[in-house]
Design goal:
- The protein is built from eleven helices and 17 strands.
- The longest helix is centred in the last third of the chain and has 17 residues.
- The protein has 369 residues and is of the alpha+beta class.
- Strands 9, 10, 11, 12, 13, 14, 15, 16 and 17 form a nine-stranded antiparallel sheet that branches.
- The protein binds adenosine monophosphate.
Length: 369
């Protein structure tokens, strides 16, 4: 491993030409990198393999996040590190943080990558979630299902996304079968059981928080899923009222501040029929439900992320044009000619070759609604 002096925590803005390190090589990293280049920065991606982000970044370290020599080489070549992938091992993020500023920091990453830590954090700061409990095995699942009522949902504490690692327990679901479906044969797996939320719609608020604590929130947008995968985001949300917008914004700002995020925090929300809010999930990175901002907001989420981690002033998050973001999942990307002939459509593809069912191949922003 190359010797690396611990860096003084860099608090001043990055200079033009400074290098932003990105952990993760997917589409979020690609779009963050493109925004960083636009602001005059260089970008260095660290990822286990080539992907959408490394297609646009000549500087890259291709190695597992657990490879300390590779982490050291990466750290020596960057001025700040951000993550586009939330499951970077906490030890790797902590190791990097001891050598180069990591924004958001290891605590925010650790909180968002574990549902137990995330829900405990939300409870501790007084934000509502679905009722929940920790499950270490099938007996806990049975007890929690009895306590919370059915339907309820068992989710793996770690590494779940887009509905993966989740099992809904209906009236007849066997807790042992649900546990096996969630945990497979892996040892030491933990889960959470959540009470079922009868929501009217799902939405999210994305907050940017700068080095100086300044915050800027995009407004609450509506997210519609298909097969547990985000399919459409509507900005503005059709049923948004000024009161709902204010409560959602205050909740998200509170979470970003309490987590001491520098960068972005996406707060996924369930909106009840009476307008009540519950937090579903947090993500301390750019978020799929923020892709509309690329064409519909004064400042896009990726530029906002770069501004925050670079110590620059945040941009205006205001909605400029009503926008409907539609993900191009799997074979939907083959509709490209249709989208290209639609004057409202701004197409963003991620450079992925294999068309796989449910895979996020790109998205389209329909500007003007
Ligand atoms: P998640 O991976 O936790 O974001 O869950 C994926 C999707 O499953 C959510 O966007 C909801 O549509 C649904 N879902 C998750 N948890 C619950 C819950 N407790 N009650 C009702 N629906 C849920």
């Amino acid at each position: 491993m190359s010797p690396l002096a611990p860096s003084p925590l860099q608090r001043s803005p990055l200079q033009r030409g400074a290098v932003i390190g990105i952990l993760g090589g997917g589409q979020l990293g690609r779009m963050t990198a493109l925004a960083a280049y636009r602001l005059g920065f260089q970008v260095h991606v660290m990822a286990p393999e080539e992907g959408p982000a490394t297609q646009v970044t000549p500087r890259r370290t291709l190695a597992p996040y657990t490879d300390l020599d590779a982490l050291a080489a990466f750290a020596a070549q960057v001025d700040v590190v951000t993550c586009e992938f939330e499951n970077v091992p906490a030890a790797a993020a902590q190791w990097l943080h001891d050598h180069v500023p990591v924004r958001p920091g290891p605590r925010a990453l650790a909180t968002c990558q574990d549902r137990i830590a995330e829900k405990s954090f939300l409870r501790d700061i007084g934000l509502p979630t679905a009722p929940w409990g920790v499950a270490q095995g099938p007996d806990d699942v049975a007890a929690l299902a009895a306590e919370l009522g059915r339907p309820c949902v068992l989710k793996s504490a770690r590494m779940g996304y887009d509905g993966k690692g989740q099992v809904k327990l209906g009236p007849d679901t066997d807790p042992a079968a649900a546990w096996a479906a969630m945990a497979g044969h892996a040892a030491g797996v933990q889960g959470v059981v959540e009470g079922w939320v009868d929501f009217a719609w799902e939405g999210s608020v994305i907050v940017a928080r700068g080095l100086d604590g300044q915050m800027a929130a995009y407004e609450l947008v509506e997210n519609r899923h298909r097969d547990h995968i985000l399919h459409d985001t509507l900005a503005p949300a059709p049923h948004l009222t000024p009161d709902l917008a204010r409560r959602a914004r205050e909740l998200a700002l509170h979470a970003a501040q309490a987590l001491d995020v520098v960068g972005l925090l996406a707060v996924e929300l369930f909106i009840a029929h009476d307008g009540g809010l519950r937090v579903n999930e947090l993500a301390a990175r750019p978020h799929n439900s923020g892709h509309w901002t690329m064409d519909g907001a004064a400042t896009c989420q990726f530029e906002q992320c770069v501004r925050a981690v670079a110590g620059l002033p945040l941009g205006d998050p205001a909605l400029r044009h009503p926008t409907r973001m539609q993900n191009l999942l799997g074979a939907e990307v083959l509709d490209l000619p249709r989208w290209l002939s639609d004057p409202r459509a701004r197409v963003h593809l991620y450079g992925k070759e294999a068309v796989v069912k449910g895979r996020k191949m790109g998205h389209v922003n329909l500007v003007g609604g």
